[in-house]
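The freezer alarm interrupted the setup, so I double-checked each line after restarting. Inputs confirmed:
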Amino acid sequence: MISFEAVEFGYGSRPILQDLQFSVPKGELLAIMGGSGSGKTTILRLIGGLVRQQRGSIRVKAQALESLNSEALRALRRNMGMLFQAGALFTDLSVFENVAFPLREHTALPERMIRDLVLMKLHAVGLHAVAERMPAELSGGMARRVALARAIALDPPILMCDEPFAGLDPISLGTVANLLRRLTKALELTTLLVTHDVEESMAIADRIIVVGQGRIMAIGSPQAMRESKDPFVRQFIDGTEQGPIAFHAHGPSLDSLLELGHRDG
Amino acid sequence: MAQQHSTATRDLAVGVFVLIGLLALLFLALKAGNMGGFQLGPSYQLRAKFDNIGGLKVRAPVKSAGVVVGRVVAIRLDPKTYQAEVFLSVDQAVVFPKDSSARILTSGLLGEQYIGLEAGAEQQNLIDGSEIKMTQSAVVLESLISQFLYRSAEQAGSSEKR
Amino acid sequence: MGKSIVCGLRTLGASTIGFLSYLGMLAIFYAKLSLLLWYAFTRPRLLIAQLHFVGNRSLAITLVSGLFVGFVLGLQGYYTLNRYGSEEALGLLVALSLVRELGPVVAALLFAGRAGTSLTAEVGLMKAGEQLDAILMMGIDPLRRILAPRFAASLIAMPLLAALFSAVGIGGGYFVGVVLIGVDSGAFWAQMQSGVDVVHDVGSGVLKSFVFGWICGATALAMGWLARPTPEGVSQATTRAVVASSLTVLGADFLLTALLFGQ
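Predicted 3D structure, all chains:
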């Protein structure tokens, strides 16, 4: 469904991602993990065509993104549903209107049919009762779920989620995680999940990619990750300070910066 | 359903806004501007030659006894006689005898200049394309002043002679 | 010493290039937005909603300001004309000032401050909340869906607001001049009607307000679109939008006046 071939991406001379090479088969739930700022979200934005890679080829449904013009890209995007980090619901529209939005824009279905579809999507995420509320009246978890309903409104074959678990309480977290797994299996979606929540992703993902230092450090099933000997993966899975990723950010040592107790002072 | 109700009121509000906006434009065009004036009925054309038209402009009114009966439609300089030739458009309902006169008058102190038609006494009337023979040019301030100075110089000179 | 001069020159050069490329980017954006105007008319529901947002909501401030400006014109105009014994031309003075200049310009400045900042803030906040990206990811062009209707609404609302401003202003001038001070009512209207030309004066005013609507609408939307997606970024963008719109309107007014009224 999706494949990356030797993809490189950066801003100017600063490379963010290099040597990206992997493919995602249909129906798989793939979790992309890594530290903050490792470029995980950028991978999603590359697939969505929001940013363009410097080198390499990205194929979605056998179409190479770099060869598409804006019209074709727009058409391809209808195959993708994206769940943004904070939901990105339209604040001036009600929950119902938000989920109905893609249906209204892309289809000419009669209102009654749209109404039924919207309620069904909301039901799938457990929220058909709040259809008339405004996004501002919802809790974080509920807003996230509404955004999920909107993302699958057109039944896209690909679902991309950017940090869907960030800032959620344990109950909402578990709910959203289970929802993602259920929907992926029930609708045969190809789901990509960007997160740094190790526990949840291990529980629901078919495969995990660990991204670090601009590269793919490891790809494998959750089981393979748990048993991995790679120090990078180990540090990530175990969540310790010791390991390839330093605690202290790069820079001059503290001694050289301190004013007091300076030898020459 | 609550959505539909607020959309209906909103549509109404926008409709009212656009309506009063257009009405304001109409008001400006009709009441404030000079559109409510002439140029609506059928008319015929007359010509008149002047030595000096002063500040007369195209679209200036043509009045008779103070009533607007027409408009100036064109002004050009006759290259042979070096006189200004003015073309007037006059309402067909009003006819003027052949010996009518045309003067260039000023409306008020700051007012613009217009053509005043005074009816003559002849039997025959002016028809489309005919020329008004009796004309009086605009009063030019400089000539007035020089006339005044000349006359007072004359008087001073003649009083000196005595 | 020499080094700092070179340094200063280098900064000057860099900022000039930066400024020019910013202008270039803006120009391309304005052109794109103008070309997409037609889309707004294929979605009348959206257009009407935006007309309400920029037009109806600006009505109050425009009408009240127009009234007060009319009052002042009536008063100041009377004092000045009275010196030359020409107070009967008050109607003409008030009408021409409003229809030719004050109506289009002041209404545009008010628009930039009220409706313009709302547009900038709205688009900027949508950008900050990833709503624009979400629309993009749904395979919809946000320029068409979000910006075009707002732009078209600005173009339509501006001349209407300017006309309302002028009309109310004339009423205000009438109230002060005729009702309060005692200028002859007949002369007020007669001089006005003979002196204000529909095509030349009212028409030029309408043309000006179209151009100003174009300027204010495009600038407000551009600043929101290009804002940095943070609270400070949006705030900066709204300020920049008002300042840029206002200055451009005043500059364009000079150019248009010279073009339209120059002999």
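Quick read of the result. The CA atoms of residues 97 and 131 of chain A lie 8 Å apart.
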